[in-house]
Amino acid sequence: MILDVIVEDKKKRLVEHKAAVSEEEMKQKALQSTRESVGFAKALKKDGLSVIGEFKKASPSHGAMDIKVDLKERILQYNDSVDAISCLTEEDHFYGSTAYLEQIRKMTNLPVIRKDFIIEEYQVYEAKVIGADAILLIAAILDDETFKRLYDLAYSLGLDVLCEVHDEAELQRMLALDVEIIGINNRNLKTFEVTMDTTKKLSAMLPKDFKERGKVLVSESGVSTDGDISALKQSHADAFLIGTALMESDNPGALTKHWKEVYANG
Ligand SMILES: O=P(O)(O)OC[C@@H](O)[C@@H](O)c1c[nH]c2ccccc12
After folding, report:
1. DSSP secondary-structure letter at 142?
2. Complex ipTM
3. Does the beta carbon of 116 sit less than 6 angstroms from any atom of ligand 1?
4. Residue 147: which residues within 8 A CB-CB, separation 6 or more?
5. 3-class DSSP state for residue 241?
6. Residue to mutate (ligand 1; options 100, 137, 221; most atoms within 8 A of CB)
């Protein structure tokens, strides 16, 4: 299964990363970082639709994207259209890099989320060191105890956590942990199948007071048409995480603004 392969490759990459900067050194760097995080959750919670624009060059479901896309140009376009930036740092399957996130950090005041397959403390410290404001944690690859450990560590470093679920069991686990930000992934990471129905179905299972308690709901993946935006409106998501469609667009700024209008008027 692809998810297992990605996690196995991640473990190998971690050995390399630790050879370059040891665990203790990375931890100390993170603890000594004086950079104040930009609130990720806060940027998404406002009237109307928020968009998290993603920077990624490839994905296992899609293959390589238009790699002519220039990072600098893309981030400048995102800067005046999206509400937060997601940066893939996974190397082998998404052609990402921590170096991309470091570059993005220098170019934006928007909150930046590190998108990776995080399985160990080392990667949380590293996220802080490279300038991320938030991290992704995927329920499907972590048991509850590990999830909670990484989650608490992130918040202790001032990082927000987007907690990704794809089915009811994972959603119930996250609700039991009382997490702040839930991301419903419309793509099944095991089969790559995408359907907006996942957000529709799972968002209906959230407790009635989810929003009142200041929690944040994000719908992730597969948004590519006006119809997808309209279909998601009834789920009352605070934000959509959009990658492929924005990376493949010549004018991601205009597309984001258009989708915010579709959402507002739909
Ligand atoms: O390119 P899309 O279909 O718009 O999807 C973006 C984002 O949701 C997707 O990249 C993603 C969601 N969860 C992930 C976990 C790991 C890597 C990537 C992802």
Report:
1. S
2. 0.98
3. no
4. 137, 139, 163, 173, 177
5. strand
6. 221
Q: The pTM is what?
A: 0.97
Domain at 2-31+41-265: CATH code: 3.20.20.70
- Cβ-contact 49, 264 below 8 angstroms: yes
pLDDT for 157-209, tens place per residue?
A: 999 999 999 999 999 999 999 999 999 999 998 788 999 999 999 999 999 99
User: Ligand 1 mean position to 32 CA, how many Å?
Assistant: 31
| Pocket lining: 54 vs ligand 1, CB cutoff 6 Å | yes
Per-residue model confidence as pLDDT tens digits over 34-53: 999 999 999 999 889 999 99
Residue 50 Cα to ligand 1 midpoint, Å, equals: 16
Q: Annotated catalytic, 56? A: yes
Q: Which residue among 196, 220, 259 is best mutated to probe the pocket of ligand 1, counting the most ligand atoms within 8 A of its Cβ?
A: 220
User: How far, in Å, is the centroid of ligand 1 from the Cα of 25?
Assistant: 30
Binding site membership of 241 for ligand 1 (Cβ less than 6 Å): yes
Taken in order 79, 34, 138, 161, is the CA torsion positive or negative? negative
Q: Where do the domains of the chain lie?
A: 2-31+41-265
